[in-house]
Write a structure and sequence with these properties.
heterodimer, A: 238 residues, alpha/beta, five-stranded parallel β-sheet, 5 strands, 11% strand, B: 184 residues, mainly alpha, 72% helix
Chain lengths: 238, 184
């Protein structure tokens, strides 16, 4: 048996992987470096496994996102899971998960389900959180209509509007047709929140996102809604 | 003081949840290669995490805990549908490929296709180690298997990928005679 074969006998394939993954201690690393110096095939294998890691990271750096449509063919296997998720969400008061999903159409309660309400503080009608996730102009307009009515109905009523996914269009200065109405509502103490996660995602896609000066961009929609539900706000998704 | 601790912990938890979403999705996609299913797995994971928030003792361990929940979600899904999610059933589709990125996309497609053909158990280990950079011990915790099993699955998975993506191609390149065309 040649020297090269002898050197190979001392290294298992698992050890090569452990080396590549940084799982070996310093002494083991030194030994493998020495072996690799004398055995080009070990060296080659190490390089190939490192390359493989890089290829994998590259291949999954930007995985495709699901289409907005609820009726996609890919969803054939996922439908039941989506329903389960929707139910779990409502049962747990995990509205956050539903919101995090963005385009999910699933259940659309006008206010939190009884379970949600039970998990939170009692809903207080003087505090209303509106959540808009659709870019449909009718939805955007509906959100503003509700906010305007809510402000008109009660003095001192706190109203917040959270926009994510397509609903972000409401607060994007480059696309919204409702800048004036947002400004007017803002003067009446209505707070607007543009989801920081949604903005970041669009920016990662190269979209130059600009939001209206009235929009707060410090929170993700998820965080804001979870917080307000816990505080007992009335919640309405448009 | 305890109240403040609680508030800070909850805030850290929410932040961790929010920050983990993309990583969870990437791994979920690498496991099932179906965007809708991956998205639902992530959603369900976040729901369960919110439900079980109280069970998490160490906020530092939130990420591994989330991936463990997601692995369980996938197991439940497979059980309920009796699906194995083998590579044969997975179709890698990326219709958004612009022409000028054709070459790069070809690599991406080849890698995803090779990963999709691995048995799910190997796919899970390879993606947790290579994509998310978890240690073998953490992967063992996430998948609830011994570290030795993590290493053997990783070994078999990478060997198959290397064969398909690197070794196989160099052999093919060596065997294929060069096509030289004379230009006058």
């Amino acid at each position: 048996m040649s020297d090269r074969d002898n050197s190979r006998d001392h290294v298992s394939e698992e050890q090569l992987h452990a080396f590549v993954d940084g799982e070996l201690d310093s002494a083991e690393k030194n030994r493998l470096f020495e072996l690799a110096d004398n055995a080009p095939d070990i060296d080659t294998q190490l390089c190939e496994y490192r390359k493989l890691k890089d290829m994998l990271r590259h291949a999954y750096a930007h995985p495709p996102r699901p289409p907005d449509s609820r009726q996609s063919a890919a969803g054939k296997g996922a439908t039941s899971l989506r329903l389960v998720a929707g139910i779990a969400l409502l049962v747990a008061g995990g509205v956050a998960g539903w919101i995090a999903h963005g385009p999910l159409e699933a259940p659309r309660p006008a206010q939190p389900s009884p379970a949600v309400a039970a998990a939170s503080q009692p809903a207080q009608p003087d505090r209303l959180l509106l959540h808009v996730a659709s870019s449909d102009p009718a939805s955007l307009e509906a959100a503003l209509d509700i906010a305007e009515r809510a402000v008109a109905e009660g003095t001192g009523r706190q109203v917040e509007v959270v926009a994510n996914e397509g609903g972000l269009d409401l607060l994007r200065s480059d696309v919204t047709p409702f800048a004036d109405r947002v400004a007017e509502l803002s003067e009446k103490q209505v707070l607007f929140f543009a989801c920081s996660t949604a903005i970041q995602r669009l920016r990662e896609k190269g979209v130059d996102v600009r939001v209206l000066p009235q929009a707060n961009v410090e929170f993700s929609a998820l965080d804001r809604v979870v917080m307000r539900l816990r505080e007992g706000w009335e919640y309405e998704k448009i | 003081m305890a109240l403040l601790d609680g508030v800070l912990k909850r805030r850290a938890f929410r932040t961790a949840l929010s920050q983990s979403r993309d990583r969870l999705y990437r791994t979920a996609y690498a496991w099932c290669h179906q965007p809708d299913l991956a998205d639902d797995l992530v959603q369900q994971t976040l729901c369960k995490a919110l439900q079980s928030q109280g069970q998490l003792k160490d906020v530092e361990a939130t990420e591994a805990w989330l991936f463990r929940i997601m692995a369980n979600c996938l197991t439940d899904y497979r059980r309920s549908r009796r699906e194995i999610l083998t590579g044969e059933e997975i179709e890698i589709v990326d219709s958004r490929t612009p022409e000028h990125e054709a070459y790069e996309q070809e690599i991406v497609r080849r890698v995803r296709s090779a990963v999709a053909k691995l048995p799910l158990e190997q796919r899970q280990v390879v993606s947790l180690v290579d994509l998310e950079g978890f240690t073998y011990a953490t992967v063992a915790e996430i998948l609830d298997i011994p570290v030795g099993t993590v290493m053997s699955r990783l070994c078999r998975g990478r060997r198959a990928l290397r064969e398909k993506l690197i070794a196989g191609r160099s052999t093919a390149a060596r065997e294929e005679p060069a096509q030289i065309r004379r230009i006058k």
